């Protein structure tokens, strides 16, 4: 998805609101590591409008991990999902065609080994270190 106003597009958030409902995805106190979607994997793959430097710690937009906290931790991990490191394509609109092709090759390569990846820690330390 395209990063939109520092989050996911509204249509995607609406889908999550309708699908990840109480009783299916979570049921208090069964959340986070004991959420109802345990043993499921999630991977956010998205594009940004700005270059990578725009989303580094200390930058104008702040560390990209800060933006991931509500989506990966607050939604996916809350439901018990194991979260893989995100796949981010920074500013594809503003890079040469060869760089966009390289982004696609990297995504295709990652998909080949996805099932061997270890989930991220999904703790505050991972996001705010």
UniProtKB/TrEMBL annotation:
Parts of the chain that traverse the membrane: none
Q: Give the keywords, sorted.
A: Oxidoreductase
Residue ranges constituting the Flavodoxin-like fold domain according to the UniProt record:
1-111
The record's GO CC annotations read: cytosol
SUPFAM superfamilies found in the cross-reference section: Flavoproteins (SSF52218)
Q: Which InterPro entries does the record match to this protein?
A: Flavodoxin_fold, Flavoprotein-like_sf, NAD(P)H_dehydrogenase_qn
In terms of Pfam families, this protein maps to: Flavodoxin_2 (PF02525)
GO MF terms here are:
NAD(P)H dehydrogenase (quinone) activity
Per the record, the similarity remark reads: Belongs to the NAD(P)H dehydrogenase (quinone) family.
This one is known as NQO2 dehydrogenase
Q: Write down the species.
A: Todus mexicanus
Q: Which gene encodes it?
A: Nqo2
């Amino acid at each position: 998805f395209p990063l939109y106003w520092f989050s996911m597009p509204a249509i995607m958030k609406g889908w999550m609101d309708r699908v990840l409902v109480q009783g299916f995805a979570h049921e208090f106190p069964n959340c986070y590591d004991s959420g109802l979607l345990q043993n499921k994997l999630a991977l956010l793959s998205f594009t940004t409008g700005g270059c990578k430097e725009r989303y580094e710690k200390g930058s104008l937009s702040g560390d990209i991990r800060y933006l991931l906290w509500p989506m990966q931790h607050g939604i996916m991990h809350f439901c018990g999902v194991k979260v893989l490191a995100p796949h981010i394509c920074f500013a594809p609109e503003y890079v040469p065609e060869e760089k966009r092709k390289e982004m696609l090759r990297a995504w295709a390569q990652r998909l080949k080994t996805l099932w061997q990846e270890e989930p991220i820690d999904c703790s505050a330390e991972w996001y705010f270190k």
